[in-house]
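pls read this stuff:
=====
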Amino acid sequence: MIRKPTHPGKVFAEDVLKPLDLSVTDAARMLGVSRKALSEFVNEKVSLSPEMAIRISKATNTSPESWMNMQQKLTLWTAQQNEPSNVIPFPLDTVF
């Protein structure tokens, strides 16, 4: 994957908050989280936690897996930007 995946917080802001004209404060109250926690997520300061994914999925009638998949793609892409160069491949013909 060449393009950096979109942070799930941006997706939440663009696809949920904006169309519903919800502020971060109101959405945080409805999700049962602090305004700070939701703000950090929406502003891409923190990763999506499984707990937040469950809250968002319940509020939006979506699956927590769909939200976590977005985060997993971003996390893996970020890690791949600094792939280790000192890994020696296992001799696969003897393992399998």
